[in-house]
Amino acid sequence: DLFPAVEPILPDLQEDGIVVWVLGAGPYPPGVVALQEALDAASEELAPEDVWRPQDMGDTCLYIFTSGTTGLPKAARVSHLKSILCLSFYELVGACSRDVVYLALPLYHMAGSLLGIAGCIGIGATCVLKEKFSASQFWDDCRAEGVTVFQYIGELCRYLVNQPQRPGERQHGLRLAVGSGLRPDVWQSFLQRFGAVRIVETYGMTEGNVTLFNYTG
Q1: Tens of pLDDT, residues 177-205
Q2: Which of 72, 112, 152, 155 could be disulfide-bonded to 179 (CB atoms 3.0-4.6 Å)?
Q3: Where does the record place the AMP-dependent synthetase/ligase domain (predicted)?
Q4: DSSP readout, 11-30?
């Protein structure tokens, strides 16, 4: 779907040695790698471990979009080691394999993909993916899916607090909310209105080496 936006600058990209991969049937211009064909042709047998195991855990595992805390928006390098550390995120905040995690964050950011998706894989929890966050549907979703853990950014909690009060908004199974950027006034309002939900505020950066956790509330 995004290829038409890239196609006009394709010659410049190829001149700079940048390879363009596309998922979809095509056809595509020469030099563009159609991933679907490669996927269809690939064997379902797992390659030997020495082929896919990284030589150095500090090597680049992937590039992920960061919105510019340390400058302009850019693709930030994430190592294999940092990716693996993200598997323990939910364990660090008190979640477990019995939890159902509600995730409505964009997956092109580290919070949604590596902490959210990889974090669920790390503890074997169920992940409920919402394509777009909806404050009006949130508590209905929580009840319908049996949600116990919510990963937020600060604004999402403010959106919930700013919703008109509705019957049954304290009747839910949510026990833990974890994320970044929750203001103290919103924190207080959230607890007063929606009940005894444990909140663990965290702070980290895609390019940073240190993460902070507010365990005490």
Answers
A1: 999 999 999 999 999 999 999 999 999 88
A2: 152
A3: 42-211
A4: HHHHHTT---EE-SS----T
* Euclidean distance between CA atoms 13 and 20, whole angstroms: 8
Cβ atoms within 10 Å of 159's Cβ, excluding its own: 16
| Model confidence at 47: pLDDT above 90 | no
- Cβ-in-10-Å burial (0-12, 13-18, 19+) of 151 comes to buried
Beta strands (DSSP E) in the chain are: 21-22, 33-34, 60-66, 74-79, 100-103, 126-129, 149-153, 176-180, 198-203, 212-214
Contact between residue 147 and residue 129 where contact means Cβ atoms under 8 Å apart: no
Residue 187 Rama label (left phi>0; alpha psi -120 to 50; beta): alpha
Q: So where are the chain's domains?
A: 2-50, 86-213
Cβ atoms of 78 and 58 closer than 8 Å: no
Q: Which of 49, 20, 23 is nearest to 35 (CA)?
A: 23
Task: Give residue-wise pLDDT tens across range 50-72.
Answer: 888 888 999 999 999 887 666 78
How deeply is 156 buried, as exposed, middle or buried, from its count of CB atoms within 10 A (0-12, 13-18, 19+)? buried
CATH of segment(s) 86-213: 3.40.50.980
Query: Cβ atoms within 10 A of the Cβ of 170, count?
Result: 11
